[in-house]
Request: fold
Amino acid sequence: MDALYTAVATATHGREGRAVTSDGKLDLGLSAPKELGGDGKGTNPEQLFAAGYAACFGSALGAVGRAAKVDVSEAAVTAEVGIGKQGEGFALAVTLRIELPDSLDEETGRKLIEQAHQVCPYSNATRGNIPVELVVE
Reply:
């Protein structure tokens, strides 16, 4: 793969530190959620992953919609990223909840969502590594 763009971010002190992008547009404090023993006052990596996946999947859905000449501009994608114990370590699981425009029939919507799942870089990166459930709402 020849990268068209490379994002660069540096995190210090793990879940209790800071994450900063090389261009300075993202600079935020990190903290573990209360459910994992943290104070929950900062953003956590799962939230960042959820935001990125939701945005990326929404863009992929828009691209396949435009190619099919179907307006999905009013679609919304919510990503739920769960973390839990797996063996000696931890693992992630994702549920993508896609709210399609009312004007779109279910069969066409499902087809576009499946196509977006094949195109989305996050979906391609996670495929076979973590469970990703697609839910049409």
Remarks:
- The mean pLDDT is 96.
- The two ends are 34 Å apart (CA to CA).
- The chain has three helices and six strands.
- Strands lie at 9-12, 18-21, 27-29, 76-86, 89-99, 132-136.
